[in-house]
Design goal:
Elements: E1 41-42, H1 43-48, E2 67-73, H2 76-83, H3 85-103, E3 107-111, E4 114-119, H4 125-137, E5 141-144, E6 147-149, E7 153-158, H5 163-179, E8 184-187
Parallel strand pairs: 1-3, 7-8
Antiparallel strand pairs: 2-4, 2-7, 3-4, 5-6
């Protein structure tokens, strides 16, 4: 079942060390700012909203050195081939719920089975990323017809002088984590 478009996810029990609400997230946002399937922010909302940009070419202020995580689900092609698109959609919805349970409303659906997470600079980013990896990978997903499948993620961590550079660094680190077999966290250096 999809989260209602435009509605933020329910208040989660966050991983330790995270403020209850990200300072950059808007109090309310239009429905088009939410992915209609998962309820996460859309890529367009994060790229286009100057009040709370996740990605822009403008340099960040010294106090805005947030972390970017690039979270990519592994084995989606296999799940789609075995169980079909509705099961794949359910995995995306459930994975987003698990992400929200870990980090709250700090999640944007970046591509099909990929999310960006924005974390405050004072957060233990490695611990949060490992918490996300375990939350997604430790409990199998219901893929329908009584089948449960374990899904893992590769997570890249990035930080840079601009949002665009931070996303590139996180994405590069995520790709390296995937090449190393997935189900791991890799920090850009």
């Amino acid at each position: 079942m999809a989260v209602e478009a435009g509605a933020p996810p329910p208040a989660p029990a966050l991983l330790p060390g995270l403020p209850s609400r990200p300072a950059w997230a808007p109090d309310a946002c239009p429905a088009e700012a939410r992915d209609p399937l998962t309820g996460a922010f859309t890529r367009a909302a994060f790229v286009a909203d100057p009040a709370a940009p996740l990605v822009s070419d403008a340099p960040r202020e010294a106090s805005m050195e947030d972390w970017i995580l690039d979270v990519d689900v592994k084995d989606m092609r296999r799940l789609l081939d075995l169980f079909g698109i509705p099961s794949g959609d359910q995995v995306l919805v459930d994975a987003t719920r698990r992400l929200h349970a870990c980090v709250g409303d700090r999640v944007a659906r970046w591509a099909g089975d990929e999310w960006l997470v924005r974390l405050e600079p004072e957060v233990d980013v490695r611990a949060v990323a490992e918490g996300i990896r375990r939350a997604v990978g430790d409990v199998p997903f219901d893929v329908g017809e009584g089948h449960r499948e374990r899904v893992t993620v590769s997570i890249g961590i990035g930080r840079a002088d601009t949002w665009a550079q931070a996303v590139i660094r996180a994405s590069t680190a995520m790709a390296l984590a995937s090449q190393e077999g997935g189900d791991r966290v890799r920090e850009a250096h």
